[in-house]
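tool_call: predict_structure(chain=1)
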Amino acid sequence: MWPFRRRGRLPHSVSSGNVVTIALELYRHQGNRYFLLSLFAHAWFFLLTIAALLIMAVALIVGGILAGAIDNVSPFLLLTGMSALVALPLYLFGWTRLMASGALLSRRIYAVLTALEESESAARRFIFPKMLHYLLATLIVGFILLLVYVVLGAIGYLIYLVGAPLVQLLEQNIQIQPARGLFFLTFLLSILLLVLLALLVISYFMARLSLVDVVLALEPDCTPLKSVRRSWQLTQGQAWHTLTVFFVASLATIPANLLGSIINGVVIIPVAGFFVAVLLLPLWQAIKAVLYWDLRVRNEGAAFQVRPEAVNPLRWLRRVTLRTPESIELDFALGGIGSRVLAWLIDQIILYTALVLFSLAAGYIYFYALYPWLIEVLPASGQSIEAWSLGIYLLVMFALYNGYYIFFETYWQGQTPGKRYAEIRVVQDNGRPIGLREATLRSLLQPIDFAFFGIGAFLVALSRSEKRLGDMVAGTLVIQDEQATRLAPKATTLQQPQAAWVQELRSLAHWEQMTPEHYLLVRNYLNSRDRLSPVGRYQAAQELRQQLEPLLLPTYPANWPALSAEDFLEGLYIAYRQQYQSSP
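tool_result:
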């Protein structure tokens, strides 16, 4: 075996932030049609739900009147039961049709992503006859999540039974005031950590089961139970990635949901909420479609296939051409709303963790050492001391918060730790690295971008240049930190036992049939195979060999050794390089 190194992400795999960005661009591609599909689906659900509620209301009113007239509750119970038998199927039909319509959106968007030709009528014929499957799959997922809630509730109750007496005992035996304060702070932090852990467990299961409807929409002969197992299989080893995608998407849609909620509160009739739900359904289904493709690439090697499906989803990122002062044109992919939200999230976690720790340490020193000393030195200035202390504390927090962004963006060439994780960076409009002035303006204008219902997020999502207010004032752009060399494999050497076979392959193969794209597929597979699941690794190698071998060797020599698919691809890689003296 040749020592290919494991480096970088898999070719054509997508970062968590870019999943959201690409989904938004796919939504824009046929946004009007996707919006209409979502509108009709929500209208079905809304009207059937109203019909079910009206039937129940009429039955309750008539049953109540009859029960009062004859002094017997039997008519009330009979009418209530009969109305429930009619109303429940109406509601379930509306809900199931909404789910099937969401699956239709995912299938249509996935076809665009992978360059597959399929009409909407053909997609409907595949989706809607299986409406019952979507309902059953939802019930199975709901039952699994219910079991998770029950188990977590039982564990929480056991912790309470064991922990409550222990807490009371410790409280009674701790008499020193600073120690009591530290004890209660530790107790509250422990409760918070347990709650966060429970939420993380619930989120983990929800992420692992999040692709059930997409699996039903895209894979033939899939039953409800099989779709649940398939979603679990696809997300194996990728739960954190999946969870990050949905969390980033939730953060990115907060401004739209917040605006809709405020309008609903003013108008009373939930028109804005209905509109926001209609608007966001195609985005969520697009995210699932892109995530489904990405997980197949990561776990099953879906990108290592010689067919139109093996396309690079990064082509959907918006690009910009910048001209430097030296009249050199530079082409970049813009950062995108998803990657920017992901970077912001990572930075906020780092920042607030540091600020909380700083506040706890500073508060402890202030209240138990500095403040008593100040009161002793200046006994008549208690209120002034408190006001000045608060002012200094807020000023220090402001300096630390903004200093974080200013320092890192200035000295890390436009990157913070969050931006480095999300693989984006800030540059000037002419492509040059940003300096202290640009970093300061961007940081100071960040609060304004969050004001007015997250106007910065709207500007990034809707404008062509993806600039928030801070970028407009500072004259900056956020771009993808593209480094294709991350995926380049190390040079490899041919082991002696395989040398004779490779030399024969080099002389017999029809090399004119092998394109550079075929070579890159082989190279990328060999470089990335260790990160695939065992089944995905085997299937990707088999499919790649089955598609390349007939092109290069129409007649397979009978005296050749029996080779596995990976051995064949390794030999093919070396033979091609020797034939054309290409670099790795």
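agent: The longest strand covers residues 319-323. Proceeding to next step.
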